[in-house]
Amino acid sequence: MRHRRKVAKLGRTASHRDAMLRNMTTDLLRHEKIRTTLAKAKAVRPVAERMITLGKKDTLHARRRAARWVRDPVVVRKLFSELAPRYGERHGGYTRITKLGSRAGDRADMAIIEFV
Predict the structure, then answer these.
(1) Is residue 106 packed enough to be buried (19+ CB in 10 Å), middle (13-18) or exposed (0-12)?
(2) Counting Cβ atoms within 10 Å, is residue 99 exposed (0-12), middle (13-18) or buried (19+)?
């Protein structure tokens, strides 16, 4: 049983999972909407929301913590200048996951994760 196990392993090693979540978070911040499997969307949601929360703080330490996860400086700049001010009055819940049905090739549940 997986009681109290927070990490969705997604069939990957820890380093592969971290790299995938970094890339997906960066793409979500860049494009503001990505289409992926439901399990991956649920895994990337807390990471993306944490990045928005860091962006709302707008301190040097917050910028360095965001840059540690999102490796593209252009996306980090967008996070702090465009995305975070948009959610200044909102207390969490910055993303929405919309289920799309299943993928034709392997019947995986697909979803769109986007900013509200």
Answers:
(1) exposed
(2) exposed
Closest CA to 55 of 86, 18, 33: 86
- Residue type for position 72: D
Distance in angstroms between the alpha carbons of the first and the last residue of the chain:
34
φ and ψ of 100, to 5 deg = -110, -15
What CA–CA distance (Å, rounded) separates 113 from 116? Answer: 9
**CB–CB of 102/109 below 8 Å?**
yes
* Structure tokens that stand for 33 in this block: 């909407």
Per-residue pLDDT tens digits for 6-52: 888 999 999 999 999 999 999 999 999 999 999 999 999 999 999 99
Q: Look up residue 19 and give its two tokens.
A: 């790299």
What's the whole-model pTM score?
A: 0.92
According to DSSP, residue 80 is labeled I
Q: Where are the domains of the chain?
A: 14-115
Domain covering 14-115 assigned CATH 3.90.1030.10 in the classification: yes
